[in-house]
Amino acid sequence: MDASEREALVSRFRAYLEQVPAEPEAAPEAASEPATDAGQGEVPDLFTLLAELAALKNDVRLESRQFKSALDQLSAACETLREQNQELQEGLQRERRRAEAASEGADQGVLQELLDLRDRMAAGHSQAAGYRLGLLARLGRGRRYLARMAEGMEMNLRHLDEILARRGVQAQETVYRPFDPQTMHAVETTEEPSMPDGTVVQEVRRGFLRNGRVLRTAEVIVNKKDSKT
Predict the structure, then answer these.
(1) N or C: which terminus of the chain carries fewer CB neighbours within 10 A?
(2) DSSP letters along 183-207, please?
(3) Are strands 169-171 and 200-205 parallel, antiparallel or unpaired?
(4) Model confidence over 152-162: pLDDT tens digits?
(5) Are 191 and 224 in contact (CB under 8 A)?
């Protein structure tokens, strides 16, 4: 029962109360006849009103249970995302302090750990950005909360990329480029007739360069055409 139906029901009940006779004693003949005077509207049937009020009460109770269940699901999902984001932020702060304290020649291992941290942050951001609420989609606050959570993760990713960039670390561009065994590792091959042989089709794990040298080898899928064709 939607809001307009409820409003109509309340109006009918109000009309019924207003149409009830002030004097309880009335002739039996008059009591058995419905009020059909030209100057008055039809008096709603009390039994019908009570039945509709009972239905309204059941609807309200059902919607209350559904709303509570939706809030519980939203609370659990948001708490999980909050804990993940908190863990990532704490890890980022730890690694940033370690990276800033490390010297140019001794921070290779720290940078590798930062890249692993970046992989986890990117995976968490993708999960938050693609999360499907289902029933909770009707709750606007849930959507806004998840959107803010995804924005916060994206800001952390950008901040981490800035830290890496200040140390000469840049992401390697691989997709749709020729396979380079010096900077890439082919984990799989595929056959894509529309693309040249030896072209990178997909990136499985992003590679990084530091001052032009390989810091982490990219893992890619390479196009390999059938030699018979």
Answers:
(1) C
(2) TEEEEEEE--TTS-TTBEEEEEE--
(3) unpaired
(4) 888 888 888 89
(5) yes
